[in-house]
Design goal:
heterodimer, A: 286 residues, alpha/beta, Rossmann fold, 6-stranded mixed β-sheet, 4-stranded antiparallel β-sheet, 11 helices, 38% helix, 23% strand, globular, B: 270 residues, mainly alpha, 2 domains, 2 strands
Chain lengths: 286, 270
């Protein structure tokens, strides 16, 4: 009985998943992911960290059936991604936002772009209308509804890209390096939107990034290296593993790195994730 | 960013903007056919007046419509010059070496220039007053009979919509690549025609590479948003015919009859 209630809360279930990129002859040419087992629960804010080529984007593409596993399985709401007949059930439940905002918009008017997903799913017109209004309000872009995306900033474009997948009413929002091309202001905008969606609407978010500071506010951090999951846990659990983080070619958040160095030098500061925490614990020293 | 006036939507709330895209498309086609059939200068004047009036009603700045000619001015000039010398009918006005200018030649050259200019002005008026989405939806709707013989009309409409969306993006990209090449000492405005064409090669190759990369990502984004998930796709914006479409069709119809009459000198004006 207890097992069942737990299963109910799991949106994505990944079982010993492996995938290799292959050439035309079917020989593996590049490593994708190796033996990944993961569960992502409803309402979780999950950050997938890894350097370039660590397999994080491969993992994202395995989530909605863009790639199919060599071994193991990926299940979304209990539906296997290899189930061809239900692939669109999966894709409409996993809203995927990519790196370059320009390359994921189909229409020259923002509301038309938001309508594209629900139109493809055959949603009735009146319903599309309410979904567009809701999605634009959610990302705070309502006043741009009838405008062209061309004149927006990077952060605004990416918020529109988020709204465009929200109009499909997904259960999971996957941001595949969606902050990588943005300036700090744009990154903050996208992060704020993702966090708000998670906190206020209970949206499950999977954020794929190589910026460590974006992982601080996550419920769960997953670190990938060479296609394998090397760490999973809360931000403080993960970032206290200095050696493993280093081995995965990643850097600790600045505050964490300073607090750990200070501790090594014998000062009694708390382990800190944010600048604020660090400042407070340093102030407490005297 | 470079100004691309051809094919860009000019937002406004005019009666022309509100017209059904399908009606606008059909009327534009009728207009194009008419422009090609007309031969008399007086009829061209009538067409000019019609375009001017339509522009005023649509509230698109006249200057903007005139600017759309800029893109084809080179072709117009070349074609006119060729026609000027190629047509040797009529009275010889002046003659030098192998070149002779006749009044017949002048008339053909002027006719051709006006024809091309009106063609571009008419079609750009269509794109100024119709959003790309309306336009492609309209085309899809007009192509409906083709759907019965299994032509993928919806895919064609999406391809056109995406093409229109990416025009300004790729233009911006050309500017960026040219600047990057200039920073490395490339020169685009010196030398003969062949040299200039050669200088553009380092611009075109990166442009193509990036266009293909964009296409790849776009394909993924389309799939991620369930493109082709169901054959029962719905339409968010449904075009409906209104009284104004009927009025516009009537006015254009009357005008076409008028131009044909003038062209055939029905009233013996000239």
């Amino acid at each position: 009985m207890e097992m069942q209630t737990e299963n109910k809360n799991i949106v994505i279930e990944i079982q010993s998943l492996s995938y290799d990129y292959r050439n035309a002859e079917g020989e593996p040419i590049a490593r994708g992911v190796r033996n990944v087992t993961l569960n992502i629960a409803k309402g979780e804010f999950c950050v997938l960290l890894g350097h370039n080529g660590s397999g994080k984007s491969t993992l994202a593409k395995l989530l909605n059936g863009f790639l199919l596993p060599d071994e193991g399985s990926v299940k979304v709401n209990g539906i296997d991604t290899t189930d061809e007949k239900r692939i669109y059930d999966i894709r409409s439940k996993i809203g995927m936002v990519f790196q370059n905002p320009d390359n994921q918009m189909v229409a020259s008017i923002i509301e038309d772009d938001l309508a594209f997903g629900p139109e493809n799913l055959g949603v009735p017109r009146e319903e599309i209308e309410t979904r567009i209004t809701w999605a634009l309000e959610t990302v705070n872009m309502s006043e741009h509804r009838h405008r062209s995306p061309n004149k927006l900033s990077g952060g605004q474009k990416q918020r529109i890209a988020i709204a465009s997948v929200l109009s499909m009413l997904p259960e999971v929002l996957v941001l595949d390096e969606s902050t990588a091309m943005l300036d700090p202001k744009g990154r903050a905008e996208v992060m704020e939107t993702a966090l708000r969606l998670n906190k206020e609407k209970g949206m499950t978010v999977i954020l794929i990034t190589h910026y460590m500071d974006e992982a601080i506010k996550a419920d769960k951090v997953i670190v990938l290296n060479e296609g394998e999951v090397v760490l999973t846990g809360s931000p403080s659990e993960v970032f206290s593993q200095k050696e493993i983080i280093k081995k995965a070619s990643l850097e600790l958040p600045v505050a964490t790195s300073i607090s750990l160095s200070l501790r090594e030098m014998g000062y009694n500061v708390d382990f800190s994730l944010t600048d604020k925490q660090l400042a407070e614990s340093i102030c407490k020293l005297k | 960013m470079r100004e691309v006036s051809f094919g860009q939507y000019y937002p406004s709330n005019s009666a022309v903007h509100k017209m059904d895209a399908r009606v606008k498309l059909l009327l534009t086609i009728a207009f194009i056919v008419m422009v090609f059939l007309v031969k008399s200068l007086y009829a061209y004047i009538a067409i000019g007046v019609f375009i001017l009036l339509t522009t005023l009603v649509s509230r698109v700045p006249v200057l903007k419509v005139l600017k759309s000619i800029k893109a084809i001015i080179f072709i117009v000039v070349i074609m006119s010059i060729i026609n000027l010398f190629a047509n040797a009918e009529g009275k010889v006005l002046c003659s030098w070496w192998i070149f002779t200018i006749t009044d017949g030649g002048i008339i053909t050259a002027v006719n051709l220039a006006l024809r091309l200019i009106f063609l571009v002005m008419g079609t750009s008026l269509l794109t100024y007053t119709t959003t790309p989405m309306e336009l492609t939806d309209g085309m899809e709707s007009l192509m409906y009979p083709l759907k019965l013989i299994k032509v993928p009309t919806h895919d064609i409409a999406i391809i056109m919509s995406i093409a229109l969306r990416f025009i300004p993006i790729l233009m911006e990209e050309v500017d960026k690549i040219m600047m990057a090449q200039k920073a490395r000492g490339a020169c685009f405005d010196r030398g003969g025609l062949l040299q200039r064409a050669k200088a553009l090669l380092p611009v075109l190759i990166p442009l193509f590479v990036s266009a293909f990369r964009r296409a790849d990502e776009l394909a993924l984004a389309l799939d991620a948003r369930c493109y082709n998930a169901t054959p029962n796709r719905t339409k968010y914006k449904k075009a409906t015919l209104a009284i104004r479409d009927l009025i516009a069709t009537l006015i254009t119809g009357i005008f076409i009859v008028l131009v044909v009459a003038i062209n055939n000198n029905f009233w013996g004006l000239y």
